[in-house]
Amino acid sequence: MVELVDRTVIGAAWKVKNLEDHDRRLERAARWIDELSREHETAALVIYEAALMKSGRPVKEVRETVRRFGDKWQDEEEPLTIPRVSGIMNVDGDDWFFGDDTLRVMTGQLLGQFQHRVAQYNYVDEREVLKRWANSHDTRLFIRRRIYETEPVVGVISGFGLPLVQYLRVAAGANTLVPSENMAWALESLGFGSSADEYETLGRAESLALHLDLPAPIVGEMLEDIARDGLTDFPEPPELATEDEGEETASDEALKPAPGDREARRSAREDPRKGDEPTRVQDPQPRDAPGVAEEAGGKKDPASPETGRGEAPGEVRDGDEG
Fold this sequence. Notes:
Strand content: under 5%
Shape: elongated
Number of strands: 0
Helix content: 55-70%
Order of helices and strands: HHHHHHHHHHHHHHH
Number of helices: 15
Largest sheet: none
């Protein structure tokens, strides 16, 4: 199964690398991710943006709302730390949440979780704490085992599902991506087959990024781009099995006996005087093989149930006691 999966990933990576406009797509995805990273410098606003994505509104509209919030409350003398943003949102109503009080509550919960997380570190910047969480082994492990709901930071917040967790991780600077229907469609077009769920889509896309030797967020954006374009006509990779089959055939030929050897073996099988007794080449160790005693100059006694008695490990022989 692992070998078959590897072949699928290798084939998909070959198709992506050999697209006629591969360089253009790669450059566009890299530019897009770079722009996002510059917008995600303030930890509190990154958390706020991830919570607003729960609204289902377009990404562009969500980010515009976050920008307006930052522009209004930015103060050179008082930065937008997590505690300050949380305090503002507690008194400023639902206008910053598209009029949805549940989004305001969720944002407050998220900010509170990370405020507690920051307090666990001494003199570490909030943005760095957020990035460490996003890239940590524990966070990845909870998601890989499909139990993100028990992850102690954001998993415990009701309604904050896997795509939102992944959105927050990507925005925080993690080397991962956000599973989506578009991404699943692109992966299926590349030969992966239909995806069972978001976890499988995530695993396939991250594996593809690994084989492409590219950051996962960039590969994620390239897959989204492929889906938006409805691209299904990919270059076909060379048959991966051809070389292996050729080597296997060559090995089989090398193992076959030469014509002369085959004739000698056939004669041996047909000669009634041969093949009845085991040869010394088959087992040079046994002392009861026909002819062994004669070669040693002795006479072979018939075997009996008593042969070897007293010589078993741990057994005491007569005369040895005391």
